[in-house]
Specification:
By secondary structure, this protein is mainly β. The protein has no helices and 30 strands. The protein folds into 4 domains: about 1-105, Immunoglobulin-like; about 110-220, Immunoglobulin-like; about 230-285, no CATH class; about 295-379, Macroglobulin (MG2) domain (Immunoglobulin-like), CATH 2.60.40.1930. The strands form 9 sheets. Strands 25, 26, 27, 28, 29 and 30 form a 6-stranded antiparallel beta sheet that branches.
């Protein structure tokens, strides 16, 4: 009795020479309930996993590997290729049956560039930056250790830099790995750089996520006082560096403006909205026509700042052209700098002194038979 159906059985007995017919036959029914298990057609899938279901209503399940759940999940990464997955089910009458189904996968790897880890937008500096690219296994197929991923990048569509990334460990589905390029690079100009990062991997046919384009902005606040030296006819003078996110003056003040009441150097650091800083300083001096100004015959010479750090400015205002010789002397009378100017009328001359040792010097102006010597301090 193989079929799942109700069978009718008629039983009878017969003994020779005994002719009794009313109680020698019995009729009974037998209900055969063998489990009706059908795992269906063989499976070939492009998904990374498939769940097999033996059906509900059985008292027990026994899969090929000893597991006892109604369902069994086959993952592309833990499958046995071209394997028949079998299960035995048992019903309430302790009747059992077994069936199996072939499972095969048609899955390709899928890697993507998901982040430019470094560099990030930054303030302009002399720093050298690593190029770090994050690669994600966005497919369902694990990538074995020792496999090679080819990784590249371009800056502003320039020359491609390409390296091999050899996996030191398996790259499981959903996990990431970061490739660091061998050489660091400068980003020496304040601008937005376009980074194009991309990869290639054998068997990866999904190319839409193989490339990532990111803008990296290097900023530098454009700030400077209008001049290294400012002359004023009276104090106080209010210095205003303009509109920025924050300010830090030489004395610790964080106000936007600074009120100056005496000659000297005044420095401020400004910070923009991106956290980048710029610093400049200015020398303020009272324009009183004594210190820093020489009145000659038919000409006036002004020199400032004094004290000076980097650059001494010399202004010549002559009523008619003059020949002028300018000498910078140390305290031993040795000439440090000599400048000769012919036919000077209205002229501004710069003398760079930042390379000289700090201390007291003398500046000598010779115009014809007129000679003027003044003390200058280099800070």
């Amino acid at each position: 009795m193989q079929a799942n159906q109700l069978h009718t059985l008629k039983l009878f007995a017969k003994l020779a020479n005994i002719d009794v017919f009313d109680n020698d036959t019995i009729t009974t029914t037998v209900d055969v309930q063998k489990p009706d298990l059908d795992m269906g057609d063989d499976i070939n899938t492009t998904e990374d996993q498939v769940t097999l279901d033996a059906g509900a209503g059985y008292t027990s399940y026994l899969w090929f590997d000893g597991s006892t759940q109604q369902t069994y999940t086959v993952n592309v990464n833990n499958q046995t290729p071209n394997f028949y997955y079998s299960v035995t089910v048992t019903n309430a009458l302790s009747c059992s049956t077994t069936d199996s189904v072939l499972v095969s996968f048609d899955v390709t790897p899928d890697l993507s560039v998901t982040e430019l880890v470094s560099p990030q937008s930054d303030c302009l500096s002399d720093s050298l930056y690593y190029i770090d690219v994050e690669i994600t296994n966005t497919g369902g197929l694990d990538i074995a250790a020792s496999r090679t991923i080819v990784v590249s990048y371009k800056i502003d569509n320039g020359t491609a830099i390409t390296e091999d990334h050899v996996l030191s460990a398996p790259l499981f589905a959903g996990n990431t790995v970061v490739h660091r390029f061998a050489d660091r690079i400068p980003l020496a100009t304040a601008k937005t750089y376009q980074f194009k990062t991309y990869l290639s991997y054998t068997g990866d046919v999904t190319q839409s996520n193989d490339t990532l384009v990111v803008g990296v902005t290097i900023t530098s606040p454009s700030f400077a006082f209008s001049s290294d030296t400012l002359k004023t006819n009276s104090y106080p003078v209010v210095l205003d560096p303009g509109s920025w996110s924050s300010y830090l003056w030489h004395n610790g003040s964080t106000n936007r403006t600074f009120s100056v009441t005496s000659d000297g150097w005044y420095k401020v650091t400004v910070t923009d909205i991106g956290g980048c800083e710029a610093t400049d300083s200015v020398y303020l001096m009272l324009n009183v026509g004594i210190d820093g100004t020489i009145m000659g015959q038919n000409f006036t010479i002004s020199y400032y700042p004094n004290p000076v750090r980097d650059q001494l400015t010399i202004e010549i205002d002559a009523y008619k052209p003059i020949n002028l010789e300018i000498e910078l002397l140390n305290t031993q009378g040795q000439k440090v700098v000599t400048k000769r100017i012919k036919n000077a009328e209205q002229l501004i001359e710069k003398m760079y002194v930042g390379n000289y040792a700090k201390g007291v010097y003398y500046i000598r102006f010779i115009a014809g038979n007129e000679v003027f010597v003044r003390k200058v301090v280099i800070q």
